[in-house]
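Worked example 2:
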Amino acid sequence: MCISRACSSFARPDLGTTLTRAGLAASAQQAGHRSVLAALGGLAIAVWRQRPTPRDSGSEGKRDGDRRHRRPRSTVTIGSIKAAVAVLALTCGTLVFAQATSAGVITLPLSDFVIFSGGNGTGNTGGNQTSIGGHTRIIGNIGSNENLFQQGNPLPGYPAQLDGSAYAGGALTFGQDLTVGDSLHLRQVVANGAATISSGVTIWGTLDASSVAAGSSPAPVITGGVTAPSSTTFGLIAMPAATVFTAGGANKTVPTGQGNSLTLAPGTYGALNTSSQNQAVILSSGNYYFDSIATQGGFDLEIDLTSGNPVNIYVVGDVSLAGRQSLLVKGLGTSGAYVPINQAPSLAGLIYLETRATFDMSGGLDGTHNIWGGTVYASVDVAGNSPEMSVGQYTDWYGAAYAYDSFGTADHGTWNHVALVPEPSSCVLMSVGTAFALTLTRWRRRRVSDSGTVTRGPVTGRPT
């Protein structure tokens, strides 16, 4: 049975994050840095082998027939260095890491999931730490360190579809008529506990669980077979520790009146609120710190990402968003205009929001969905509250949603996985190193004559 990432076309490479983003997939980030440094090391070795070297004492005039004895020239060329640079640039753009597996344990980084809950708290003991309502389409992997539930019941215009794999550290339940994968994209469903598969469910792929209870009339169809009890298990994910930050400062409220907006520069603030419905707040790339955020219906969050740099929004308290919310972005591919995130979904990879309390978004309407995105992380367990992250019905999301303890979303939605992109520190390191390698290589080429002998430069060592 295949348990690699290649089994899922929707599994994303683990990009890792920086410390400003709560250390999501921190181990993968460290691996990414090691990959970049290793590649730079390889370039350095190549350049070192091409360094000008003085001839051995007395080597001048030593001949074997017509051939002069001298150190063979390196076969490393400027072209090969450029090729290595291109590979490094691609690596910086994707940072693809292999999935580690051992003894049937499947390990995946958090950033491979569109929805995941850590199940670390006490507020939802015995419940479903990840709960997904009916008539919902998920594009990406879903999971939980504890129990996972996805309802089925497709409706016209609202399929019950998981275009990804599912992993549960506890029990797993699929509702009636849910479809997982398709004939071209085989998926993997793994539960360390019992799996309950309702009638009419179709899983294009495999199912591994400690035990399986299947519905009837019609019976579920699992194309890749069922293994129960199974030695294949899901390796639990250690959720990132909450970022250490504080807020405080002047409260900010959008001026009274529908249609009004408030523009804020990166910085530290108190509470952020709207004063009526149909208002907007405008942010830009950088770090924002708030005590809390509360909005009324018809709210627009507009984010200017034309610099190509990320925006990080840190909230000490609750984030409470009323229904009919929209996230609009301006940046690469938007022709200088603000557009809903579903029209420029790649920009969701630049947006991160973390709350050390709860994130609650009320539902949209059948004709006016919530259009939202970015990666949101509810990074603590809030005692007596479950779930820490709650998203209402009729929501279309582009990005990812993670909860330290529990997560829930209602029906009639779509979830599209867009992973966070790395902040530029690793790429800057790569660029500096490779530019240095190319400079030394060009110097070497200028110092080697057509005959292959080395022309010594001035005492300063500057190229001649």
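The two ends are 61 Å apart (CA to CA). The chain has two domains: 26-51+76-102+424-464, 109-417.
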